[in-house]
Structures are given as structure tokens and as C-alpha cells.
Amino acid sequence: MRNSTVRAVNHLTTRWAAQTPAEDTSTVFTAAGVWPLLALLADGSGGPARTELAEALGIPAEAAAGAARELLAALAGVRGLRTATGLWAAAGLPLEEGWTEGLPAGARGTLTGDPDTDAKALDAWASDRTDGLIERMPVVPDENTLLVLASALALRLRWIQPFDEGYGEPSAGPWADRPVRTLHRSTALLDRVRVAHGSTGAVTLLEVVGAAGVDVHLALGEAGAPAGGTLTTAIAAVTRALPATGASLLPDGNPGPGLAVGTVTALSPEPRLDIQTVAFEVRSEHDLLEHARLFGLESATDRAHGHFPGVSSQPLAITSAQQSALARFHAEGFEAAAVTALGAAAGCGVPPRLRYRARRAEVHFDRPFGFLAVHRTSRLVLAAGWVAEPESP
Q1: Residue 79 contacts residue 11 (beta carbons within 8 Å)
Q2: 169 and 272 housed in the same domain
Q3: Of the candidates 74, 151, 167, 190, which lies 20 to 30 Å from 113 by C-alpha distance?
Q4: What would the DSSP string read from start to end of 67-136?
Q5: Does residue 393 lie within any of the structural domains?
Q6: Given pLDDT bands bounded at 50, 70 and 90, which one contains residue 169?
Q7: What is the pLDDT of residues 294-345, one digit of tens each?
Q8: What total of structural domains would you count in the chain?
Q9: Is the same domain home to 29 and 124?
Q10: pLDDT value of residue 117
Q11: Confidence bin at 139 (pLDDT 50/70/90)
Q12: Domain check: are 108 and 222 in the same one?
């Protein structure tokens, strides 16, 4: 996929992330699901709506449809990622042939005008295209609905190295003294954790590597830092627009939120990063028209005028724009096991000699934090969100 398109989608993700609510509110969203739809609308738009959509997209309106098709085709090639688009139009709505021919391949359907019948058909499409993760289409059609344009994105990945699962109670912060479902693992790769500095302070980033081409990055900001500031710094860092320093080069002490780094005497010179985080599930419903300017939809919602002459000769205005999103983070492929060790002494033995100096790092995500799902090759952010509440036992 083109770097210019990736930058444009990531820019929309960043602007959306800046609107993230308070630290105590969980959310998940995917600009990669919204951007292609805005691009397809821009291709058929006119007047002020065309200008606003182009500004929101970050590319000229005349190039938008081609960029959307190219993006969707590239996403279809990402292992573990499923994407789809769909168009449903009222039987009597004339559609411009040039616009429909430029749409990516996908479902085509007819709206009957019966809300129950149409809702069932749209819900079935949403559930099927997301493997049941999203069961309902977020737009609810009524007898006045003339057109529905939709996209679906479903990502499933497995960790290269699974976590061990347990339970614990954080000793401080919003989750203090609450039982939470914890995930643990260790690695010799210290630079899986990095620290970046943004406008709201330091952010600690943990890269959790997926078995296919997508990784998840957890982002912990400074205590009291706004969620939006932490997420925008994280996006800049993972897309390499902002430098981030790996733990192997960080000074001893606490160089980032939730992070401790030091040099210790050890049996082996091998470095080690000990990771502790929490399992979570986040679901969100977004009304995009609450941030109409962000998505270039202010003028397009004015029902006194038509805004999409390239779509239909009948005047059309946007009356609803919604997104349902889900994210889960867990110990994929985790299996329970037990190890029993018996120790014995033969008498007159000596303790093993600690002969090496080794780097050790520990990172704990035990208070609200952000997350990003990122395509490893292109650095496209596929989903982003904030975890205010971990899973309980």
C-alpha cells in the first residue's frame, strides 16, 4: 500500500485518538474502517462537502476512490485480517454508473423500505463479515433510508510467544486491591519495550509480536496524563514519526512509566525483560456525526441540499454515521501446566557463583493504558483504543 495513503489513514487515527475521553473510559476505534468509506463518498461528492471530505482524508477528492480501492486490496492480503465493503440502495434510487463502477468489489443489495427486513439483512452481513465479533450493523435503516455504504474489518492473530495467565491485585492506582486477570512472560529482547516523549510526557511502549504480520503495542503514559495525549504519542512512536529509545539503551532506574531498568549480578550474561500486563475486552459504539468536522461530514449532513451528485442524480445527505468496535487481549494459545521441583543438598556444597553483570528490565501495565494494532510492514494502525477496566477473574 502507498506510503501516502498509510500516512493519511494514520493521521485520521491520530486526530481521532486526540478525542479519546477521560482515563476512566474504555474505547476502541478503527480509522482504517472509516477512511475508505469517506474516500468513496468524496469521489461522488460536490461543493463544500467535497472540500471538507478531502481535508479529512488528507488527499485530493479526485484521488480518493483509487486510494480506497488500493488500501482495501492491500488489507485483504494481510494474514489474519478480513475486510469487506457493502452497498445497499433503495430500489428507486438512480445511481451514477461511473461511481458504482469505481467501488471495490463487495456486497450489493436493495433496501426494501421495510425497517425490520432491511435491518435483518444488514445485521446478517455485519455478523458474517466479522466472524460474529460484531453482530449488528451500527446504522439502523428506516423507511427514509435510501443508501447504506458499509465496511467491515476483522483481525485475528496469535502471539509468537504466549503469555502465562494468573491473577493479582495491583497495589496502587485505580485498580488497587482489585482482583484482575494478569498475563506474564519474559524475553531476552529488551528492546521490545521502548520509551518515547511527547507533549504530555513519557510513554512506555511494549511491542507484543503477532505470528502473522500484525503486532499489538501497549502504551502506558505518566500518571494523570490525558488518554488522548498518551495515544497520540504512541501512534507517532510506532509509526516512526517520533523517536523511541529501547530498554537496552535506557539508563538504570525508572526511565519510563511502569518501567524499571537495572544491571544485576547474575548466573548468565543474557539480558531479560519481565512483562506483566492484564487481559482486557473493550467494546465501543461511536456516533461519527458527534465529531462531524473530524470526518469531513459537517456540510454533508445538511438535508436542505444534495451533496453527492457523482453518486446519484437524486439529492442525498448523510443522516447517520456509526461505528461498532471490539478489541480483546488475552493469552492466545495458553495452556495450563504444572512444574514440580525438589531440591536436595549433598552436604559440603557451595552456592553457585554469580559471575556476570546482566541487564534486567521489568514493565508493569497495572493501571489504564492504550493499545494499537499495527501492520508491521506498512506501519498502518489498524485499530486503537484505551483500557480503563481490565478483565476480572
Answers
A1: no
A2: yes
A3: 151
A4: HHHHHHHHHHTSTTEEEEEEEEEETT----HHHHHTSPS-EEEEE-S-HHHHHHHHHHHHHHHTTTSS-S
A5: no
A6: confident
A7: 999 999 989 888 899 999 999 988 889 899 998 989 885 222 111 111 222 2
A8: 2
A9: yes
A10: 94
A11: confident
A12: no
DSSP secondary-structure letter at 303? T
Q: What type of residue sits at position 150? A: A
335 vs 168, 252, 339, 392, 393, CA distance in Å? 19, 35, 13, 19, 17
276 phi, psi to nearest 5 deg: -135, 125
Q: Give CA 310 to chain center in angstroms.
A: 32
Regarding whether 208 and 124 lie in a shared domain, the answer is no
> What is the span of the domain harbouring residue 61?
3-77+81-156+285-326
Q: How many CA atoms lie within 13 A of 85 on its CB side?
A: 24
CATH number at residue 95: 3.30.497.10
**Beta-sheet pairing, 107-111 with 81-90:** parallel
On whether both 209 and 264 belong to a single domain, the answer is: yes
**AA letter at 136:** R
User: pLDDT category, 44, cuts 50, 70, 90?
Assistant: very high
CA distances from 258 to 21, 203, 219, 373 (A): 22, 9, 10, 21
> Does residue 70 belong to any structural domain of this protein?
yes
In this structure, the number of other CB atoms found within 10 A of the CB of residue 30 comes to 24
